[in-house]
Amino acid sequence: MVCSFVQDFRQEEPLAVSTHPSGLMCLISFKDRVKMYNILMDQLQEYRELVLKGCQTLAFSHGGQLFAAAANININVYDTRSLAQIACFQGHMMTIKVLQWAPGDDCVFSSGVDGNVYGWPLHANERMDMITSGARKSQINTISVEGFTNGTKHSSSSAVLDAHHRDRSIAHH
Question: Is 145 a domain residue?
């Protein structure tokens, strides 16, 4: 079933959208804030608001209890219910364009315009360098993650991170 409608945001231009896994709410970022909306039959109803300037990438976790918001080179992780900030990560040298959660929702992966892909375990104070661009300055368009648990590679299966750059895929095991 496909549901569609048009929402007029007046003179505000949406920068990014992420739909909650339940399909009942969504996040939309604007120039100086992120708004959470309830999705109704024929409209969006504003529910909460978070001040965050320049957020161009949003991603709900698989369970929907958390969401990540990337503003320039920073990633902020929030609790969906309270909007309390859970974590803040820095490490990219250029704007972050892609966010993807690991299956257990305990690690978020990011890719920047610089071509670097990093993993950010929520309960560890370290960055996992997954793909570093070196001299390559090209953007990764999508990331898919399998086999990560508690921010580390799962011991019983290999961890796979596929980063898709235009026409080719880069796999990291």
Answer: yes
Between 156 and 28, name the one with better pLDDT.
Answer: 28
pLDDT in tens, 3-14: 676 778 888 899
Domain range for 123 is 16-172
CATH number at residue 153: 2.130.10.10
Task: Classify residue 5: in a domain, yes or no.
Answer: no
Mean of pLDDT values over 65-85: 97
Give the tens place of pLDDT for each residue, 103-130: 999 999 999 888 888 999 998 878 888 8
Q: Which amino acid is at 110?
A: S
